[in-house]
Structure formats: structure tokens, C-alpha cells
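Task 17 of the worksheet. Students: predict the tertiary structure of the chain below and write it out as C-alpha cells. Keep your answer in the requested format; marks are given for formatting as well as content.
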Amino acid sequence: MTAPKVSVNVNTCTSASDDKASDSARSNDPLAIRTVKKGAKRVQKTLKLPALISSPDFRNMLLQKEADEKAEEARKKQCKIDMEEKKKAEAKEEELKKAKREQSKKEWEEKKRLKDIEVQCRKEEQKRKQEEKKKTKAAAQKKGKKRKVCRKLNEAGSEDNTNVDESTMVLDNNSSDD
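Model answer:
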């Protein structure tokens, strides 16, 4: 097995038409090496490629490699787009969760407020009932005292005893209506 021979030819181009012709020839060949500027002159390096490299299989490998690189770039681009969409979706989902939390918080506050109002109404109702109870009790006590006084007066009147104690006739000032 012998190593493939590589030879480098250095040609200097002096005319502009030769330069354009060599550029167009190189641009058509995918394995061509670009020219390198050295001072005012252009130097073209050409390689004599071994048979394996110039074979169609090698060119197919290069084309496949290019296609793979393009596919990889497209995949990366798509991945980047997918990540952006995912971030947007997560942000939207987070926004919905936040709105839902705020809504449930408002509902909870409203329920609490209504419950507080209900408790306050119950307390006021209990107070009102107690006051009514006190009033009816005071009225009953007043009636009881009046009856007691009337009974004593009647007893005194039946005995023809006019000595009725005035202290029993006086009603309690504390039990009067408020």
C-alpha cells in the first residue's frame, strides 16, 4: 500500500480574465480550494486528489454530511422554536393559575364577608330577642306588682281597713321601659 500522492501547483494569475475563469471553475467544483491573497498577486493552490477522494462515493458522503449538518441545524432551530413555544405555554399556564388563585381568593373573601355579616345579623337578632324578653319580663313584673297592689287594696277594702301601705303601691323605677 502506497500513500496517495499530493502535489501542489502554484500558479500566479496576472490578468483579470484568467482570475475570473479560475474562480468560476473552482466555484463549480465542490472540492476546490479557495484562492489566497498574497500581496498584490493571487496564488492558487490545487491538489491532485487520490482516486478514493475523487470517487462518487466520497462525493455522496460529502453531500450526505452536508445534508446531515443542514438537518441538524433545522433540528436545532425547531428545538429552539419548540422551547420558545413551551415557555410561552408555561407563562400562559402560570398566568391562568395566578388568575384562578386570585379568583378563588376573591370568592373566599366574599364568603368570609357574607359569613361575618350573617354572624353579625344573628348577634343582632339575639340582642333584639333578649331585649324583647327583658321588656316582656318587665311588663309581666309590672302587671304582677299592680295585681299584688290591687289584691292588697281589695283585701284592705273588704276588711274596711284603709291603712294600705304606700310602699307596696309604688312601682319599681328600675323595671320601667327603656
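Marker's comment: The two ends are 128 Å apart (CA to CA). Residues 6-16 have pLDDT under 50 and may be disordered.
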